[in-house]
Write a structure and sequence with these properties.
With 304 residues, the protein is of the alpha+beta class. It is 71% helix and 9% strand. The chain has helices spanning 8-28, 35-38, 53-65, 89-103, 116-144, 154-182, 189-219, 225-257, 263-303, and strands at residues 40-46, 70-76, 79-84, 107-114. Strand 2 and strand 3 (79-84) form a beta hairpin. The longest helix is centred in the last third of the chain and has 41 residues, at 263-303.
Length: 304
């Protein structure tokens, strides 16, 4: 029989190993925020041929001649994605006319402008959503598991679930910090949607395992807690893997055929789904055992 609890420290160490690079990236560079959070304008220009470095420099010069500060200019095959300080439609039309004169045939595929105040409100709302949802999860699980046998506490189940959520959130955010630094991937409002969905996936899998632990604790009153948790994980593992695999197949299909606009949203979902499945099996439930072992050792020391 697979002894997951017996090797829990290895699983905790592996989680740290994959999270630490992202945390370092967050500390050094942070996230590459889109105009959804910072405010500004975003233009997508379409050319009939691949945009080389020389043409990209010509594009930048046109913006500078129109006294428009370019924040980022990112060529991608025959497209150019440009972020600037806030523009109005008149300025955008004038720049497009100058671009056609300087760089040849070009069309504007997308143009959006968000003010800095709205961007700040979006950032605050995003952080508030994540904080409030995590807090509600703690209270809900603590209330749902209030009948668990002593000396266990229902609050441990709630905090264990949130610990798994934090694991998943840090992994997704860390990966996107690295992607932003080395690939230029921006974090927008869709990323927040993906992150909240990931938290939902994660807590769903975790509650399935926790619920089986609660049932087995009632059936096996004399069994050691570590054994009950290990048996519960094994009993629910196939269900968790099958559920996650079916969702993963849908996400991979969307990644292949969904188009550029939702690509990084889907990537965030895939990373979070895999992480959530791992954390619910190898982190959340083993954390309950580690907590109980620490409590027992502490009691023994106090008696001595």
């Amino acid at each position: 029989m697979l002894n997951i609890i017996g090797h829990k420290n290895w699983y905790f160490a592996f989680s740290l190993l994959i999270i630490i690079p992202g945390l370092i990236s967050l500390a050094l560079w942070g996230l590459k925020l889109s105009i959804d959070f910072t405010g500004g304008s975003r233009l997508v220009l379409q050319y009939p041929q691949t945009v080389n470095e020389q043409k990209a420099e010509q594009i930048r010069n046109v913006f500078e001649e129109n006294n428009v500060e370019v924040v980022t200019l990112q060529p991608s095959d025959d497209q150019v994605i440009i972020r600037t300080k806030p523009l109005n439609e008149t300025q955008s039309a004038a720049i497009l006319t100058d671009l056609r004169a300087e760089t040849g045939d070009v069309s504007q595929e997308q143009f959006e402008t968000i003010g800095p105040i709205i961007g700040q409100e979006t950032a605050i709302n995003a952080l508030s959503s994540i904080a409030i949802s995590s807090l509600l999860i703690v209270f809900y699980i603590a209330w749902s598991f209030r009948g668990v046998r002593k000396p266990l506490s229902s609050w441990r189940f709630g905090l264990g679930a949130v610990a798994a959520l934090i694991h998943d959130a840090l992994l997704v955010i860390g990966v996107f910090s690295l992607l932003g630094q080395f690939v230029g991937v921006e974090v927008d409002s869709l990323f927040v949607t993906a992150l909240l969905t990931v938290l939902g996936f994660s807590v769903h899998d975790t509650i399935v395992v926790f619920d089986r632990i609660r049932e087995n604790l009632r059936r096996n009153v004399e069994a050691p807690f570590a054994q009950v948790v290990n048996d519960s994980i094994l009993q629910t593992m196939v269900r968790s893997l099958n559920t996650s695999l079916t969702a993963l197949l849908v996400l991979v299909t969307l990644l292949i055929f969904g188009g550029e606009t939702i690509r990084w949203f889907i990537v965030a979902m895939i990373i979070g789904l895999v992480s959530g499945t791992y954390s619910s099996i190898f982190n959340a439930a083993p954390l309950l055992v580690a907590w109980q072992e620490w409590t027992d050792k502490r009691k023994l020391k106090l008696k001595e």
